[in-house]
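Assemble and predict.
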Amino acid sequence: MNEKNYCVILAGGLGTRLWPMSREKQPKQFIDVLGTGRTLIQDTYERFARIIPTENIIIVTNEKYRRLVREQIPDISENNVLVEPMRRNTVPAVIWAALEVIRRQPDGRLIVSPSDQNISNIEAFEADVLRGLDYVGDNEVLLTMGAKPSRAETSYGYIQMAHHIPGTHDIYKVQSFTEKPAAEFAKIFYESGEFLWNTGLFLWSAETFIRAVVNVSAEMKTIVGSVVSGYRNGENVSDLLLELFAKSPNMTLEQSVLEKSDNVDVKLCHFGWADLGTWQAVHDILPQSDMGNVVIDSKSLLYDCKDCIIKLPEGHVAVVQGLEDYVIVEDDNVLVICRKGDQKNIRKFVNDAQLNLGEEYV
Amino acid sequence: MNEKNYCVILAGGLGTRLWPMSREKQPKQFIDVLGTGRTLIQDTYERFARIIPTENIIIVTNEKYRRLVREQIPDISENNVLVEPMRRNTVPAVIWAALEVIRRQPDGRLIVSPSDQNISNIEAFEADVLRGLDYVGDNEVLLTMGAKPSRAETSYGYIQMAHHIPGTHDIYKVQSFTEKPAAEFAKIFYESGEFLWNTGLFLWSAETFIRAVVNVSAEMKTIVGSVVSGYRNGENVSDLLLELFAKSPNMTLEQSVLEKSDNVDVKLCHFGWADLGTWQAVHDILPQSDMGNVVIDSKSLLYDCKDCIIKLPEGHVAVVQGLEDYVIVEDDNVLVICRKGDQKNIRKFVNDAQLNLGEEYV
C-alpha cells in the first residue's frame, strides 16, 4: 500500500433524516442500518482499510461519539481520532485533517469520505480511489467523485461536467455544483447526461487543498498559518483549532472552497454508490418484496401495502394494512409512521419532538 | 341491598378484536383499556358492588385467568370465581352460574353481564338494573336490556321491540334478535325506531332461566337435572359440569335459548352503553381531538391525521402523518397499523400471526 495515501472519514453528523433510528446519542453511522451485522462506519472503515494503511485512516468525530468510535473500530489508534471542538459544517474538520496529514507526511494525499454510504461494487471502488489518489498526487487538482444518475433524485447534490481532461480515465473539468435540486431541475439534470451525483468523496493532496483554502479566505489564511507554525514549533494548538472551527463559515465544502477554486475536476465513477441519508435511500438499496416493501430485521404481516420500509426493534412484529410509500420505524421510545417521499418531513418531526416532547425523544 | 339479587360477570373471553392490546395471556377485560387507572373488569365489578351484595357477585372465567381475577378483584371470595372446565360459548357458563345461584338462594334473581362494557350514566344504570331485577322477581320473564341506537352500528346485535308491556317502565315484548347486521340492514334498523342495541345484559330469576333451558333442549334437560340432583346430594359435580360444557351447543344465548322462548322482554335503557369490543368502539367513547383522533396513554405528534386511535406502551411517542380512520396500537412485541372501520380485519391478522409467526404474538 502507498504510505502517502490517507483517508479521512467524517463521522460527526447527526443523521437526522433517519430518525428515530438515528438518534443524537447514537447517529446512523454507528448503527447497523442495513441489517448486515456491521454499522455504517465499520463498513466504511473496512472498505478503506483494504487499500489504505490503517495507520493513515483518520476519523473526525464529535466528543459525544468518541466512545462509539473506539468501541466500533477498536483497531484505530487514539491519535487517529480527531475530536471536533464544536459542531460545525465539515469545512474546519477537513482543514484540520489535511493539516494533520501534512504534519505526518508533507506530500500526503487523501480521500475525504462520509461515514454513511453504501458501495455495491467494492473492486470498482478500490480501483477508482487508487487512480484518483494517484491523479491528485501528480496534479495540483481538487478531485471530486461523481456517480452516473440512475433517476432524477432530489435528495442528492449534482456536479456538472465540463470538458474531458485529455489522457485521463474518465476525469472531467467541473462546470458547476448544485445542491439538492427541485424536482423539475433534477429531471433536466438527469436527462441532459451532463450531470453526475455528487458522492461527497473528495480527493486531493493535503497541500493542494490547504493552498485552495488560504487562497479563498484571508481569515482562514491567518488561522491556518498559525496552526501550521504551531505544529512546527511543537506547541499545543487546541486554542487555534477552536478558533479555526469557530471562524469557519457555516457553508459546505463545495460553497466555501470548491466553487471558488479553478482547479476542480470530477471523476466519473461506476462503483454503485448510494448515500444512506434518507429512508427512501435505504429502501432503494435493500431487497424488496414483490410489492416493493422492505422489512429490516423484524417479522411482519403486510396486507395491501406497497413500497413501504419497516424497521422495528428485533423480535417485534409489524402488522400493517393499506399503506403505500410509507416509512414505519420504531426505535427505543419513538414510533414514526410517515410518507416516505417527502424529504423534509422528518427534520420537521424531530424539531417538533424536541420542542414539544423533550430531548429524550431526539 | 336485596339479598336475593345476584350478578354474574362473564370474564372468560379472549377479546381478539382488541389485539394486540388484548392478548391470550391477558385479554381486554384485565386491561386498563381506557386509560382510567382501572381495568374493565374492575370497573364492572365496582359498578355492581354498589347495588348488589358482594357475596352475591360471581365471576365466571377461564383457568388461565383465575390468577388475574384474584389479583384484580382481591375482595372476591374463592367460591365466587367459577372456572370453566373448557372454553365454550357463554351458554354453559350462564347455566352453571344460574344453578349456583339456585343452590344458594332458590328464588334468587340475577343479572348476567359482560366484563368489557362502558356505562356512562351510573345512576341510570343502577336504577334500570334494580327495576329489572324486581321485574324478573315478580314475572316469569327473561329480560334483556336494549340501548337506543345513536347510529347504524354494524358491530352490535339488535333487538326488535314488539308491544309495550302495560304497567311497566319502558319494557317491551321482544319481536326478534339479529346478530351484527350488514350495513344496509343496520341503517334500516336504526331509522325504523323499532330496534335497540343488544347490550348483552340479561336479567332473570335463576329458576325461570333454568326452566327455559330445559324446555328448549332435551339433552340440556338431562344434564341440568343431573347437576341439580348432584348439588342436592352434596356430590362432586365437576364431571357433570364438564359434560355440561362439552355438550352445550356452540351458539349464543340468544340463538340457543332466547329465540326459542316466548317469555322474552326487553327493557329500553338510557344509561349510555357501549361495548368495548372493537377499536372503533373504544375510539368512539374516548375524548377526541378536533380532528377526531384519540391517543390513549401515550404522547404523540399527529400531522394530517383524522379519526385515528393510537395506543402505545407508556412513555412511548407516536409520530404519525397522513392517516385517516386508522388503528395504531402497539403492545409488547406487536405493532398493528390497520383500517379502523373494517371489523373482520383483526381476527384475520391474529389468525395469520398465530399461523405464520408463532403463539408468542397472539
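The mean pLDDT of chain A is 94.
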